[in-house]
Amino acid sequence: MPDLYWTIPVARWSSWPAAASAAPDIGFIEPIVRRRLSTLSKVALKVAHDCVARDEVRVVFASRHGELRRTTDILRSLSAGEPVSPTAFSLSVLNAMTGVFGIARGDRSAASAVSAGAETLGYALLEAHAQYATQPDAPVLLVYADEPADPAYGTIEDEVQGGAVAILLDSEAATGELVCTLTRAGEAQATAPREVGGAEAADTAGEASFATQSQALQHCLETGLSAVWHGAGATWHWSWHDRAA
């Protein structure tokens, strides 16, 4: 049996691929702000905007590294004795995207940020569910965006692939449900599939296993098929169920 089990009502979702050759169009952000944003914030804002209209919405933003690349550039400037831009500093925090998004929409709803290593997306889904459960009549927007860390930090275990995904939790408008489970070491190890060279593999139930949580989740959302991710001592599992018309 899983240690944690919860269901998310999905009204809309959107994603931005890690392999995209250009930054997305975020024309809803004022030009003076837009040109100062990092690629990470732009892709996060893009998928967030795809999922919500003008209605107020609580936001849970998740990223393993956040604006680490911007922060690293700031540290390099300090090391070289160069001045640091106040704007660059203010946009280097993990939740920078949520502030920009709220200001652009004139939305004062609560926003939070989550970072939990390679399991960041999984715990962000749990946080979004917990917030929605406390007030089901108010939608929650989960936004996950990440990019690999600067090479200066060396090899990082279970490194992210980059890209972004957003999910709007709203039971009234839901088209389906995302079922999430977390199983700790012991049971997880007993059912763990064999991975070949880090590539996608399948377990005995025919479920696809992926190198990152974001790849597994997006596979589930796109195909409606179950997907799993195996981390250090835990297995995360996602499955999709359409809602009856």
UniProtKB/TrEMBL annotation:
Beta-ketoacyl synthase-like N-terminal domain location: 13-239
Check the record and name the InterPro entries matching this protein.
Ketoacyl_synth_N
Source taxon at top rank: Bacteria
Name of the protein in question:
Beta-ketoacyl synthase-like N-terminal domain-containing protein
The species is: Paraburkholderia ginsengiterrae
